[in-house]
Design brief:
With about 180 residues, the protein is of the alpha+beta class. Helix content is about 20%, strand content about 45%. The protein is built from two helices and eleven strands. Strands 1, 2, 4, 5, 8, 9 and 10 form a seven-stranded mixed sheet that branches. A four-stranded mixed sheet has the order 3-6-7-11, with no helix packed on it. β4 and β5 form a beta hairpin. The termini are far apart.
């Protein structure tokens, strides 16, 4: 094969390989409004988007959180590559996630109790921080969640901070849902 023939074959192969991929990207971009946002927020901007900090006390005594019991699921297929870190240091749990949008369920064991936090992450660009102090009172059969969380407004991108306290009957599996 001479030099010109090789060059023509390479050009044709490049066209055969690249053209379908460019068509797929182009069609995806047309039919998906947030196609370019997905590329930017998922691949080009890999910062942690969601941080959850939790402390657990049973009858006023700090209780160790089992790091191996922590599970993270969401309302559609979870991309495990987004999980940045899970650390449990005695009664302090920190979960950091580079999350897409959706509702996440963070579950973990503290002593004999399962704690489930249902938390939203509405946009890929949001940076959310959730802080919980969870107190279990076995005498009163109650669980209390003291919480503080922050999120940006869509209009001005200012950070909104919400705090509160929620008390519920104690069960073996306890769930709190936070939505802003």
């Amino acid at each position: 094969m001479n030099k010109n023939t090789k060059r023509i074959v390479l050009i044709l192969l490049a066209i055969i390989i690249l053209l379908p991929n460019l068509l797929i990207i182009g069609v995806s971009a047309i039919y998906r409004q947030n196609f370019y946002q997905d590329i930017y927020y998922h691949f080009l901007n890999p910062q942690v988007k969601v941080t959850i900090n939790a402390e657990v006390f049973i009858d006023g005594v700090p209780v160790a959180i089992d790091e191996n019991s922590v599970t993270v699921t969401m309302d559609y297929e979870l991309n495990e590559t987004g999980l940045s870190s899970i650390t449990a240091d005695n009664n302090n749990l920190t979960i950091k996630y580079r999350a897409p949008y959706g509702t996440f369920e963070y579950a973990f064991l503290a002593g004999d109790y399962k704690i489930v936090l249902n938390l939203p992450h509405f946009n890929e660009w949001e940076v959310n921080e959730y802080n919980y102090v969870i107190s279990i009172d076995t005498n009163k059969k109650q669980i209390t969640y003291d919480y503080k969380y922050s999120y940006p407004t869509e209009e001005t991108y200012e950070t909104i901070i919400k705090t509160g306290k929620q008390t519920e009957p104690l069960q073996k599996e306890n769930t709190i849902s936070q939505y802003h």
